[in-house]
Specification:
Elements: H1 2-24, E1 33-43, E2 46-51, E3 56-62, E4 75-84, H2 90-96, E5 102-106, E6 108-113
Parallel strand pairs: 3-5
Antiparallel strand pairs: 1-2, 1-4, 2-3, 4-5, 4-6
Length: 119
Amino acid sequence: MKYLILSLLLCSTLALTQDTKSADNPNHDSHNFVTVRGCVSRSSGDYVLMKEEPGTSYELQASGKIRLHDYLGQRVEVSGPQSATLSSSSDAMNKTGSAAPVTITVKSIKTIDKECPSR
């Protein structure tokens, strides 16, 4: 009987510890996790987020069930981890002067405006 109670106590302590760790560490490194607003466009097959101020671009990579195609031409807010871009699309270079140096792996996206403002 003592072993049963001790085992149950140990199991519940481990379960509580595991839940606390997952709440403290929500699957992203806070130093690389960003939230950015801008307009979604496409360049050489890559999805690009163009930030208005200052004129910065980010390559977007969808994750999970996110379909970036559904957000083309819209002003959105994306959140996710950022990393250095490995590809250098020639269209992106022509449009922005340089390839998007940063890729955001989109973990969440929401529409701010159905149309991007014209310049």
